[in-house]
Records
---
Amino acid sequence: MPHRPFKLGVLGLLAFQLFAGCASPKSYYVLTAEGPAPTGGGIAIGVGPVSLAGYLDRANLVFQEGGNRMSVAESHRWAGDLEENIARVTATNLGRSLGSGNLRTYPWGSDGELRYQVTLDIRQLHGTAGGDAVLDAAWRVYSLPDRRMIASRSWSGTEPLTSDGFDAVAAAQSRLLGRLATEIAATLR
């Protein structure tokens, strides 16, 4: 079973986190886009605001140990505001999918500058002891400046971790955001 050693590795990392506590050096992570958005013009898209489920509204990465039990990785944190990171990555991924470099993240100056606004409600974003990352999100697209909703959907996905460790968790979560942006982009075409 190729995933069995990994499962023990994640559980070992979680146990280490619990026992090491605050004495451990901190590691910081960011979500990344699938590639750069084009430069210059294109369809004007604003992403945000992004809202997070309460359990995610923290600096730390979160794991689901099993069932309803969650664990917070005390020494493994997001390098900055998670809502801003998600908005930036989603905007870049949308720009890449749609061939646009005309992207904004919330807040922006004026709705008149944009053609579409994408809002996100992140209901789940965590790693699992089983070796996956999970994303569950609701999203809406509004035409601007009239603020008319043109789409409202939910999306859920899992992405296997390619290796052991928290870097792999952030990378898998980044891939999930890329898949989410692909679905949103299909609505904007």
---
Amino acid sequence: MLEVADLETCYGNIQALFGMTLSCAEGEMTTLLGRNGMGKTTTVSSIIGLLASRAGEIRFDDRPINGWPAYKVAQLGIGLVPEGRQIFPNLSVRENLVATAANYSASDDPWTLERVLEFFPRLQERLGNQGRQLSGGEQQMLAIARALMLNPRLLILDEATEGLAPLIRQEIWRRLEQLKQSGLTILLIDKNIDEFSHIADRHYIVEKGRVVWQGDSDQLTADAELKARYLGI
């Protein structure tokens, strides 16, 4: 579904990606792993059109999307749950959810307000609250629900459970597992390997703007030296 090949991206004169290459197969969960500052968020920003790439290719459904503005990328069916959640703090939960709702993929069973509230019952209880009145876990649920309201075919999550309490992390992982089981393709950035290794299909480890390892969960969890070298575990 998504193919990134030999991607190079810069911040001004500073190059951040050096030939980044990865792919996401339809219906699978793929992860981008690595220490902070290694290029994971830059990769995501390049995919969704927030950063222009200098070289390489990004293809979605075999269509090149390099240089497309972010809103057109979203209309293709790519939804983002950004690092830091970035919900609208002065809008209510309901307003956050309906503000960008669409069914660009023409799904026969689209995500609606009622459906996302059933998926995240806690948001139903907070429907009239402003975004800034929510806990960190509730804000993360809202960020995921907002992305689902776009009815994406590919869901990208940048630091899906960072800073959340263990019980809330478990809730998020359960929901992501359900989304994967429903057939949604997921690209995930997160540090909690033990939490998602049983549901992820493929992993890429990023070091200094390039992929230095790729493999499945069995290979990753069995290699303690690999994790210590690149992930600091």
